[in-house]
Amino acid sequence: MKADNPTNSGNRLTATLLRGKLSTGVDEGEIHDRCTTADRRNDRQWSMFAWIGVLVLGFVGPLIVMLTKGNESASVRANAVEALNFSIILAIGWLIAIVLSVVIIGLLLIPVLFVLQIVFPILGAVKTNQGEMYQCPLNFFRIVK
Question: What gap in Å lies between CA 11 and CA 6, rounded to an integer?
């Protein structure tokens, strides 16, 4: 392949752009659909990262996603806020369980919180990766809006 002959490159888009034309053979609507599909896939991934961040980093994971990608996409922000609210409520639950462990009641809450801490973020990651908005049933009040 010669570098000076763009038609030998095998990439029609590159070849036509090098000739100064924008005749890719693909209509604008299809290019728009490809971009929006890629954007939606990217949004789903970042939303999933917010929920996985709860497992790995606690409230810091969804906070990072919300602050970095929340301004770019409403769906990423909504999922990150949901994950952040869940992780804050979970942290409050852990504090209550630790305090109540003196009275034995907290010792019963610790295994329940441990299971919830694993199950709901996994459900959230799966649902958001499928493109659905996951609302955690434990988020009975919104701290972050």
Answer: 8
